[in-house]
Every structure is written in C-alpha cells, then in structure tokens.
Amino acid sequence: MAASSGWWDLDEVKEVKREHAFRRDYFDGSMLGVHGKECPIRKQWCVSSCDERILTILAAYQCDHSHQHEPAVGSHAKQTGFYTRQFASVIVEAWYPQKWFQHVPDLSTSSALVTLNPTKSQWSKDEKAIKAIKAEAEGLRANGTWDDSTIIPVAELRKRARAKGEDINIAEVLQ
After folding, report:
1. For residue 30, how many other CB atoms are within 10 A of its CB?
2. 66-102 in b/e burial notation, b at 16+ Cβ within 10 A?
C-alpha cells in the first residue's frame, strides 16, 4: 500500500494494527524493480505486519542512491501502484524459504557459498549441528546479546511494548 494513500489512517485499520501489534515499515520500490522508461522510479512503499521476518527483509530495501530516478508522472505514475515481480518474489522467499531454495539452480560448475536451512527434525539429530547451535548461543550470551534472565513470552513482550508505545524488533530463532 502506498505510504501516502490515507488507508493507513482509517480507524478500522488502526484498530487491527493495535490489536495485533502490527508495525509499519517503509521501503523503496526502486530497489524492488519499479522502473520507468530509462531508470528506476523512487516510490516509497510501506507494509504493516506482525511478521518480523517480512518487516526485517523489506526494511533492507532502502534506496542506495547509486542511480538516477525518473519522476512518477503520466503512465509511469499508475504503474507504481502495482507491486513488482521482484517484490512478490521477496515476499514468497520470506514466507517459504525452504520451498523457495528447493528451486535454486545447480551451481556445481561455478564457485558459490551455500548455506543450509535445515528443519528442526534434521538439525536435532545431527551432533555437529547441535554443537554449532550451542556454540552460537554461548557466543550470544557472552557478548550480552542474549540474556536468559529476561526471557518472557512474545505475547507479553508485545503487550508491554504497546502499553509503553515502544517499537520493538523480534528475531526468529530455530523455527
């Protein structure tokens, strides 16, 4: 939805966002394929969601100012109101990473770094994976990123943040 559409200001939309702890993030369509005749069109989009993965991924699509922009005028203005194939791909990849990465082409003939995103049933049976996860957790504890004494249910955390009017960032770990 366009950031300036007015839709976000409707009372019904505000109520749903409040009730479900939605957060709104802005990102640039120019970084997701919104293109004019000769160069990208700077079009700010926003998404309101309680899905932290989607919000985090989309927040990374800020214009890097490495290119010129065309104005969104005439027929180009209308097309900025539609999401691009690249935007749709980012959403599908965020929601279904394991399905998405089943369709990665064979890179065996070229150099590449590949990471595996195993399911819990896979990594829980692998001693090396468990050892790596424990080492990562200890590192997070040691540098103060992860403090076990402050753990509370995510619903309670969101409720407290809403009550204080605070924005929070929640990471997903080993889903």
Report:
1. 25
2. eeebbebeeebeeebeebeeebeebeeebeeeeeeee
In this structure, is residue 112 part of a structural domain? no
Domain count, the chain: 2
- Domain of residue 80 covers 1-107
Mind listing the pLDDT tens digit of every residue in the chain (175 residues)?
555 667 778 899 888 888 888 888 888 888 888 888 888 888 888 888 888 888 888 888 888 888 888 888 877 777 777 788 888 888 888 888 767 665 555 555 555 555 666 777 887 888 888 888 888 888 888 887 777 787 777 778 888 888 999 888 877 655 4
55 and 139 assigned to the same domain: no
